[in-house]
């Protein structure tokens, strides 16, 4: 079903936790933008992550949502970092059509040292390693995975490298996360997390216009690109780069207002927003199925106080099983 376009003022603003697809016909640009509020806050507060870790995971969640909502099939899209820094693992996945979950792993001692040294930039906390993008279309298709290096640059820049290497599409990604301190309806102090992002891609009808003058090698690159970037993409990218981080997280700005500020002179269209939710894919039956594959010895070793307890790293739900529920593998 085709998405219905609308002009500003013809419908209510999408608000938090809704991805807004958009198109700028005058620049041959398509993209998506989002502001995350309650959904993100629930994910982060569930684990009581330290602020530097929460901020990093928030950016990964935004990136996952922006890219995952572009899937045209039933499946799962996962973004995962693995590095040698204090935050050695970040993972977020989007299960179509709307479910998001995320988790971070970090070394508290190394994190404390980094904070004391003032080394809390994302690239410093992640260290050297890899950023992996995985698309899983289910049991009837092989998963696709694209991997780029964590090389000391921001997640925004690394995501751009992924698109240049894997899709050969000029892409600009913007990400931001922030803490919001305000008061609730009763006047009590309140702390919340917010994040936002935007991805813009240059998709002209003539594919030869999609040039990457700084990209060499790889599939589809003939090594002969004498011209610079297309003027339309230069303009679009320049506009996206004017975004202030506060604009991506400020609830008073809103996604549609930001898009209008950026592209109104070129005729931006926004499409029906897509809601996303904090929903984990774990279940008692799934975990029970895994445990039934354990040997009798493994089941015995997994017991504590006469039961086996398994806690989901994503949603923190604990599932408890009596040993008699599990039949050892033959």
TrEMBL record:
BP GO terms, sorted: protein refolding
Alphabetized SUPFAM superfamilies for the sequence: Hsp33 domain (SSF64397), HSP33 redox switch-like (SSF118352)
A family per Pfam: HSP33
InterPro entries documented for this protein: Heat_shock_Hsp33 (IPR000397), Heat_shock_Hsp33_C (IPR016154), Heat_shock_Hsp33_N (IPR016153), Hsp33_helix_hairpin_bin_dom_sf (IPR023212)
Assigned GO CC terms: cytoplasm
Family matches, as PANTHER family: 33 KDA CHAPERONIN
Name of protein: Hsp33 chaperonin
Organism of origin: Rhizobium etli bv. mimosae str. IE4771
């Amino acid at each position: 079903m085709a998405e219905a376009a609308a002009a500003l003022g013809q419908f209510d603003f999408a608000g938090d936790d809704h991805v807004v697809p958009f198109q700028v016909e005058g620049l041959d640009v398509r993209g998506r933008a989002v502001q995350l509020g309650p959904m993100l806050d629930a994910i982060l507060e569930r684990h009581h992550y330290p602020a530097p870790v929460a901020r990093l995971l928030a950016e990964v969640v935004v990136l996952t949502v922006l890219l995952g909502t572009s899937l045209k099939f039933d499946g799962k899209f996962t973004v995962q970092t693995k590095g040698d820094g204090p935050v050695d693992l970040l993972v977020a996945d989007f299960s179509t059509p709307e479910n998001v979950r995320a988790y971070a792993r970090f070394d508290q001692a190394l994190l404390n040292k980094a904070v004391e040294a003032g080394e809390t930039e994302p690239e410093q906390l992640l260290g050297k390693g890899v950023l992996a993008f995985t698309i899983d279309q289910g049991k009837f298709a092989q998963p696709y995975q694209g991997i780029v290096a964590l090389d000391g640059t921001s997640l925004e820049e690394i995501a751009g490298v992924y698109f240049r290497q894997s899709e050969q599409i000029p892409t600009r990604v913007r990400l931001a996360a922030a803490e919001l301190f305000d008061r609730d309806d009763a006047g009590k102090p309140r702390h919340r997390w917010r994040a936002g992002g935007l991805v813009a891609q240059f998709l002209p009808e003539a594919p030869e216009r999609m040039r990457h003058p700084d990209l060499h090698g790889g599939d589809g690159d003939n090594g002969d690109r004498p011209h610079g970037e297309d003027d339309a993409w230069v303009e679009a990218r320049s506009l996206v780069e004017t975004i202030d981080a506060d604009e991506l997280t400020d609830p008073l700005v809103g996604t549609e207002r930001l898009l209008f500020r950026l592209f109104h002179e070129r005729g931006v269209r926004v499409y029906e927003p897509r809601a996303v939710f904090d929903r984990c894919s774990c279940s008692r039956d799934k975990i029970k199925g895994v445990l039934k594959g354990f040997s009798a010895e493994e089941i015995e070793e997994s017991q504590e106080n006469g039961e086996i307890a398994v806690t989901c790293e994503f949603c923190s739900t604990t599932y408890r099983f009596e040993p008699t529920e599990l039949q050892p593998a033959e």
